[in-house]
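Researcher: Good morning. I'm working through a list of sequences from a screen, and I'd like to move beyond sequence-only analysis. For each chain I'm collecting a predicted structure so we can compare shapes side by side. This is the next one on the list. No need for commentary yet; just the structure.
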Amino acid sequence: MSDDRLVGIVLVSHSAEVAASVAELAKSLAGGGRAVPVAPAGGTEGGGLGTSAELIAAAAAAVDRGAGVAVLTDLGSAVLTVKALLAEGDELPDGTRLVDAPFVEGAVAAVVTATTGADLDAVEAAAAEAYTYRKV
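Model: Good morning. Structure tokens for this chain:
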């Protein structure tokens, strides 16, 4: 897979700072691999806490390279907003998928896997597998 067809990743949080920080962390931990397109979509247009369909759609368009877009979310209404956008059918790029994964660990796994040129199924599987990571 060529560099211009990498899976894009969107990180949706109720907080712009959280989304941006998790994006930075995931990209930093991915090391020296290919530069995966990652975009945070946090908070509202006015800078408050919440989720914004417009910010999510813009982030997905920004990272779309034709190989699919994996969207990871933090909490309830972020999930509902992404589901609503997917149901509308024309707001998000073709091949956009809501990924059921823990936000931080899943983002790291998704970005690391995407740097290898993996397809959307593999990126989703890696992110979802992060649910099994044990800390104790």
